[in-house]
Amino acid sequence: MHAKGGVADGGHHPEHGPRFAERAPDALNNPQLRRNFRRAMDGLMAKRAAQFPDPAYWAELRERGAAVKARALSKLPELLERLESNLTANGVQVHWAETTDEANAIVLDILQRAGARTVIKGKSMVSEEMHLNAHLERHGIEAVESDLGEYIIQLAGETPSHIVMPCIHKNKDEISDLFAEKIPGLGRTGDVDELTAAARRVLRDRFASADAGISGVNFAVAETGTLVLIENEGNGRLSTTLPPLHIAVTGIEKVVETLDDVVPLLALLPRSATGQPITTYVNMISGPRKPGEKDGPTAVHLVLLDAGRSRVYQDVELADTLRCIRCAACMNHCPVYTRVGGHTYNAIYPGPIGKILTPQLQGLDAAGDQPHASTLCNACAEVCPVKIPIPDLLVRLRREAVRPTEETATHLPVVKDGGAERSRMESLVWAGWRLVYTRPLLYRMVTRALAWGGNWVPASAPLMRDWTRARAKPRFKPRTLHDLARERGYLNEVPK
Amino acid sequence: MTAATSSPATPAPKSAPKPDPKPDRVYFFGTCLVDMLYPEAGLAGMDLLRHAGVTVIFPEGQSCCGQPARNSGYLEEAKAVARAQLDAFPGDLPIVVPSGSCAGMMKTHYPHLFEGDPDQPRAIAFAARIHELTAFLVNVLGVTLQDKGEPMTVTWHPSCHSLREMGVTDEPKALLRQLANVTLVENSRERECCGFGGTFAVRQAAVSTAMVADKLASVRDTGAGTLLSGDCGCLMNIGGHAEKVGDGTRCRHIAEFLMERCHAR
């Protein structure tokens, strides 16, 4: 319920800004934005479907994908240690960051020690989580995004609205206007190739001159100490090979055990994400330039970020969240995301995965409304390549958000700020509901009373008001099914 | 029908042709929404079963599957109401439900809801007895229908939970295809949620409205004057929106429609 007199007002603090329900109308009332998302998501759904024509193959493949990630999580601490020792043996320097602040400090320190002033960046959602660009800028280091979508939103001063296609909220005309304004010497053009070429010209210079490259990681292989990075534009490869220094940042959940484990995940990720059988580039980074080699960075670092993940890991049910391989199929198929777009979530990770991840990383006080921005339609669970039971976890988080204070006080709260959404009014409503629906006689009295007088409830009554804004009032019937069943002679009990 | 032996971690079996002999007696779980707002749909469901030669038992003690509380995060309250349903349907008869959503709650969520509870074995056995109405008519009873109505065109809205929790996909359409004078046309966004989502419709009123408006538009585009569904939550949402905006589309429960066409009450 939204903050204005809702029954579930709970402990939401105003400093967290307007809630999802209050932000949504802005997007819903923007026809251009809605057309952009609808068209893009329809295209992505069709492309993904074309990649999995055989339901049996899809079922088997996602079973393998889920098993690989589940196994990796089941021995996460051990695999992380193996990853560190194998990376170190390969010449990669490994750093651990408990918070995003720590991660930013580590990256800044590496750059400063190397005397780096300019950075070229491959796409990385973890770096978004860290707000890394802003941090570097505050310390006089310029970071330029090299993924075309990221480059566009960096020019526009915006944040990603999608985890795979960060500027999907913009159409060609909007990008054309932006480029004409921001790229010197470029006039307004509607030609996609011309726009892409303009970005490429700018970025080529940046690749050649950058002091360091920063990237994300898709899979970190413990057995071999390999960082797998997939992309379509070649910018990932350039960012990680051209500058003399490469820093990769990633979440601790990205580790997998063996190189073989990457196979099913690689078969699932691009197909689920963009409907491609494989990405144009699959980078396997296994260390810095070796003596005698002609290219590659001379130093490679990996920053492993926790930022709340190990807390998620503590709960056997919620830990499934960490299986995510960031394909975005859940948001592409989400009827809510499709209509409001990514920015409405006001979070790094939007859509269904964000609705379960954000409250766990930031706490239920800040993001307790997110799990309610769902009809529990299960479209996300149907397409998740690693079988994360997103709807069940949404319900679990709704549960954590309304846990009674007695429980959150005596038990270690599983999710930060458990009980943040609890309100006395709402808990009383459900206590009353329970009373009525567990006592057949009372239930019969109440339903008969509603059959007699329920239609007199005015359309302006609380809750009814929200319903009737777009719909007619539901009509109570004079006789309930309980009445009709008896009248028609249906039995109450199994005959002896 | 025997008690399930599967562990709670195993997903509930999807509706599929059952090898069991046709049962001659079944329970009917009406659902709370049908009880108060759409009793004629529930009655039609029971009548369809009766016409198929099955004795239908409607236990007086039933109320609600508990889904509204579960989806709001009030799991203890949901479990208390669920337990009342375990008590109301003793024995091992199949339980037929005229709603994919309530059936999905009882079949796929009861076992987990009762985790660590002494009643969990009972909840697992109960879950295994749950059948969505159209799937039961087609897969278990193998009913044949004789259409007596005038020619007309309809379109179908599957509820998300009938599709994705109960695995009911073709069964309701198979029933409609048996009707000689009924033409079934598909709407372009058939598998997309109508925006009901229980309390979602009021908690996220604006998003819900956008969803139901799109759904109604895709229904209108088919030219069919009638929308059928197996779930009264969706019908209350889509039908309520149609009424509010003055759209003439009739939104009806499939059981009521089939009874009217074939047995003209």
From TrEMBL, chain A:
Gene Ontology MF, one: 4 iron, 4 sulfur cluster binding
Stretches of the chain forming a coiled coil according to its record: none
Keywords attached to this entry: 4Fe-4S, Electron transport, Iron, Iron-sulfur, Metal-binding, Repeat, Transport
Gene3D superfamilies recorded: Alpha-helical ferredoxin (1.10.1060.10), NagB/RpiA/CoA transferase-like (3.40.50.10420)
Residue numbers spanned by region Disordered: 1-30
UniProt KW Cytoplasm keyword: no
GO BP: any one term: lactate metabolic process
SUPFAM superfamilies for this protein: 4Fe-4S ferredoxins, NagB/RpiA/CoA transferase-like
Name recorded for this polypeptide: L-lactate dehydrogenase complex protein LldF
Automatic annotation (TrEMBL), chain B:
Residue ranges, annotated region (Disordered): 1-20
InterPro entries assigned to the protein according to its UniProt record, in alphabetical order: Cys_rich_dom
GO cellular component: cytosol
Molecular function terms from GO: oxidoreductase activity
Domain Cysteine-rich positions: 26-107, 154-238
Top-rank taxon: Bacteria
Pfam families, per database record: CCG
PANTHER family found in the cross-reference section: LACTATE UTILIZATION PROTEIN A, UNCHARACTERIZED PROTEIN YKGE
Name the UniProt record assigns to this protein: L-lactate dehydrogenase complex protein LldE
Organism expressing this protein natively: Nitrospirillum iridis
